[in-house]
Amino acid sequence: MLKNKPEQFKMLYQTIVDYFIENIEKGAILPGEKLPSLRKVSDRFDVSLSTAVEAYRRLELFGYVEARDRSGYLARLPLVVENILRPSKSFRSKACEIEHIDEIIQLINQTADKDTAPFGVGVPSSSKFPHKMLNRYLIRTIKEYPESSASYIFGLGLLELRNELCRYTRPYLGHTAPDNLIITNGCLEAINISLGAECEIGDLVAIESPCYFGLLHAIHNHGLKAIEVKTDPLLGLDPEALENLAKTKNIKALISTPTAQNPLGFTMSDKRKKEILSICKKYNIRIIEDDVYREISFEKQSPKTYKYFDKDNIVTYCASFSKFLGPGLRLGWVIPAKNTQKYVRQKLSLNLANSSLIQHTARNILRGENLRNIGEELASYYQSNIQIYSNVLQSQLGDRITLSRPTGSYFLWARVEGLDAREAYAKATKKKISFAPGPLFSADNQYLNYLRINCAHEFDEKRNLDLMALSKLLA
Fold first, then answer.
1. What local confidence, expressed as pLDDT, does residue 4 receive?
2. Does residue 367 surpass a pLDDT of 70?
3. CATH code of the region 13-75
4. Nearest to 120, CA basis, from 464, 443, 426
5. How many CB atoms lie within 10 A of CB 263?
6. Considering all CA atoms of the chain, what is the largest pairwise distance in Å, rounded to the nearest integer?
7. Nearest 10 degrees: Cα torsion 234, 239, 241, 245
8. Residue 10: strand, helix, or coil
9. Is residue 108 predicted with pLDDT exceeding 60?
10. Where in the chain do CATH 1.10.10.10 domains reside?
């Protein structure tokens, strides 16, 4: 039964969806209880019949409604796999060189095939980015600075853009001087610059396990070795495990993603970040903070960074606009812990400068738009998609699959009992389905029965069929 009509309406079907989810979760509507007909929902919420149909369709996808022939719609609770992802029981930490770079490149190359289901590489859905707004600002920049495409901005980058970034990041970074911020071509370039500035060939870099395979590629490219640190899928990097390694290993740097980590999706507590900072200070370990997913965190309040709590100048901060404004901008930045000029020299060894056109455009966007609202809207979309993808996978694989509980980004990390991820990947590729095999996220080829699934793309009938086909392969 409907209890009360909501006082304020959101966008059409979403109000209905929120209403039923809330009542089912708190027990006001019991699992198995018959729900009102589409006509009654349409009348009660004063919406069209098609809107009511869309609301029930979304509730079905989320796992809160079941449609039965001649019985209408029944309430249900989503399937939940009770066993929570924990660090792999066979986890190991040893210093090693990364040897599966060719597999990473093969996966990345799949993005060129538009007929392959895009569950593999972490490329976001281009349709969800604010194209019209970006194009409007690009046109404005071309009019204001017609020669911007024919000029270099050397060194740190456009001063006005650096000023705006310092203002934009102040709530979660604290005070940053513009002369200590360097504009880069995306976040990965910022991390490469940081590794080049902080490490020498043969140095040992600690990483969360599992971690984004692009970081492994960067470590390999600089002639460094990696050591994996035990990481809880819900809580993040384990401080005790880090300290145990630091006691016996000469770790030069730690790369850590404390907010919406890829692939696990956790967001670390401030307490844990402070513990890790203390350990790194004690053992003279530099921290390279990767904060590329911040704007698409599901947290209600923007989490603080390592950099915010850093009183000893050991944290280098890296970020970009790629994940919520658009990867085509290729605009990121790095804030060195110290010795900014050393970072500038590293930057100049990669390229002389970033696009002047994009820097002027980004400056104007930061002045004229509320970027946090854009990020929150995109995060809400990704959170819904993750819930849908999770429901489909659990309905197909049952207790054979255990899924992560992301607090941001658009990825699911999954363990499947009995899976050989590399073998399944080879079969999936032949069927034009992509996913990212677990071993690619490990320096030491761990996580053979794990995989990462990109949930960024719109869930429609085609995507549903692709996900069902993937489930059969995994089974």
1. 39
2. yes
3. 1.10.10.10
4. 426
5. 28
6. 72
7. 140
8. coil
9. yes
10. 13-75
Amino acid at 437: P
Where does the chain hold its CATH 3.90.1150.10 domain(s)? 110-127+377-474
185 by Cβ neighbours in 10 Å (0-12 / 13-18 / 19+) ranks as: buried
pLDDT band at 393 (very low <50, low <70, confident <90, very high): very high
Q: Is 69 helix (H, G, I), strand (E, B) or coil?
A: coil
State what percent of residues in the chain have pLDDT above 70. Answer: 96
Domain(s) of CATH 3.40.640.10: residues in the chain: 130-371
CA distance 51 to 41: 9
Pick 130-371's CATH classification: 3.10.20.310, 2.40.10.500, 2.60.40.10, 3.40.640.10.
Answer: 3.40.640.10
CATH of 110-127+377-474, one of 1.10.3720.10, 1.10.4080.10, 3.40.50.2300, 3.90.1150.10: 3.90.1150.10
Task: Assess contact for 335 and 308: CB atoms under 8 A.
Answer: no
The label of the residue with tokens 């069927």 reads 431
What is the per-residue pLDDT for 461? 85
Predicted confidence band at 8 (pLDDT cuts at 50, 70, 90)?
A: very low
Can you tell me the distance from the alpha carbon of 136 to that of 226, in angstroms, rounded to the nearest whole number? 44
- Compute the distance between CA of residue 18 and CA of residue 31 in angstroms, rounded to an integer: 16
**CA proximity to 303, closest of 368, 375, 213, 232:** 375
Orientation of helix 159-173 relative to helix 356-368, angle to 10°: 50
SS3 339: coil
β-sheet with 411-416: strand ranges across? 117-119, 433-437, 450-454, 411-416, 401-403
* Position 455 pLDDT exceeds 70: yes
Cα angle: 336, vertex 410, 445; to 5 degrees: 75
pLDDT tens digits, one per residue of 292-325: 999 999 988 889 999 999 999 999 999 999 998 9
Residues forming a β-bridge with 236: 232
Count the helix, strand and coil residues of the chain and give each as a percent rounded to the nearest 5: 45, 15, 40
Bridge-based pairing state of the strands 401-403 and 315-320:
unpaired
Rounded distance, CA 326 to CA 331, Å?
Answer: 9
